[in-house]
Design brief:
heterodimer; A: mainly alpha; two-stranded antiparallel ribbon
Chain lengths: 267, 123
Amino acid sequence: MASEIQTSINHEFVVELKECAKLLTEKLQSNQFEDASILIQTITQSRDRHIFQSVGRLTRGLHDAIVNFNVDADLSKEPPKIQNSDIHDASNRLNYVIELTQKAAEKTMDMVDEAAPIAMNLGQEATSLRDEWARLKRREMSLDEFRLLYDRMDNFLGQMVTGTEQLSKNLQDIVLEQGFQDLTGQVLKRVIGLINEVEKDLVSLVRIAGQVEEITGITDDPEKNAHDMEVMNKRKTEAEGPQINKERSDVVAGQDEVDDLLSSLGF
Amino acid sequence: MKILIVDDFSTMRRIIKNLLRDLGFSNTHEADDGVTALPMLKNGDFQFLVTDWNMPGMTGIDLLKAVRADEKLRTLPVLMVTAEAKRDQIIEAAQAGVNGYVVKPFTAQALKEKIEKIFDRVG
């Protein structure tokens, strides 16, 4: 890996530095100042060469990472126009997931909206007929009323047949609509694969950059650290969407904890 | 009662709309983020606002702050229905003057309880 090569280069540089340092002390102690000054020049040159090499390696790593993401960009534009890349492709795939889940949700709700009144009407008619039927059993019904009930019963059985047919059809459609899970699952798995690749490449780049910083003595910038803190603080209340990891201590586990928190605040 | 439902996902707006209808509130209107919601609130006589947090354009928390800062709207009851579940966020919403906070995914029962509680308190 690139970061391992960088480690060995760092090691070589340190060895060279130590040798030069030892020689330099000897020269200085024996008052050979001209040789000493040549040595100092060698050290500086070696350090410069080392920085150039490291930056070169970092650039190479960055280039490889970009190639891995299959970025096809027009660099003559400002900002460069990305025509095609794995990331671009992944965005399209994720948009497809949104589209598909939305369609499935809409269709399912349509089916339920259509079925709910049918079930309600059948239920209401059945309740009312049961009351009438009870009157008939108690022999509280006149002949005319019975004729009416006779027709209603006939009618209801007809409604029952068409109604339940419609209900089973809607239930089946709802089940079929769940097919989106398979399709979106496949798309999401591919995108997860890409993200893992990107992460691996980024970690490798960060390691190379860290080694370069270490050997060249680039130190922490307090202003930058303050900026990082500010970003961290802002993140505390930034929208993140649904929480996947319920174990996180800064996140509530459900409605009960929300209610507890709010009541502790005097709600 | 005239209610405004604000969420960037139409399916979620529909779910909330259906639940509100079951609770007997059928005069509902919809907006897909704070930018479209705010002028609707200012021009219409809405009596209740249900809003998501995470939306493009203007977020729900900014909408809440804008409502509380508006002379005419400052007393409008606001229920937040959102997937945002960080403690700091709930505290921020409470400090901004939210009247109820429901985390997604929610049950019909939870939504009903919070709405009733808000109306009990507001009167």
